[in-house]
Amino acid sequence: MAKKFHALVCCRAGMGSSMMLKIKCDQVIKEENLPIETEHGNLDSLIGFNGDLVITMSDLTDELNADSRVPSAVGITNIVDKNEIKEKLTSWCAEHAE
């Protein structure tokens, strides 16, 4: 069985936009049978986070990739574009497959 990755879907405040992104990510993950499980939060959720991936808006990606608490970050430009989400999550999974 393939490794199951743990992802935090977040934005700065953890309100509407990141919840919408989580819903879209979960749809793509289910449709594409990707080995990712998600949780929702805000940047404060990085405290104690020991997962594999942070999925966020593209404007936060550079900041998060520079954060030692973040193992890997994927930035999404259009949070309702399932094709973009599919492309980026599929690519990330391929890069991190064992």
Automatic annotation (TrEMBL):
What Pfam families is this protein classified in?
A: PTS_IIB (PF02302)
Q: Does this entry carry the keyword GTP-binding?
A: no
Q: Name all PTS EIIB type-2 domain ranges.
A: 5-97
Q: Keyword annotations for this protein? A: Sugar transport, Transferase, Transport
The identity of this protein, by name, is: PTS sugar transporter subunit IIB
Q: A biological process (GO) annotation for this entry?
A: phosphoenolpyruvate-dependent sugar phosphotransferase system
Q: Which PROSITE patterns match?
A: PTS_EIIB_TYPE_2 (PS51099)
Classification from the root reads: Bacteria, Bacillati, Actinomycetota, Coriobacteriia, Coriobacteriales
A single Gene Ontology MF term assigned here is:
protein-N(PI)-phosphohistidine-sugar phosphotransferase activity
InterPro entries assigned to the protein according to its UniProt record, in alphabetical order: PTS_EIIB-like_sf (IPR036095), PTS_EIIB_2 (IPR013011), PTS_EIIB_2/3 (IPR003501)
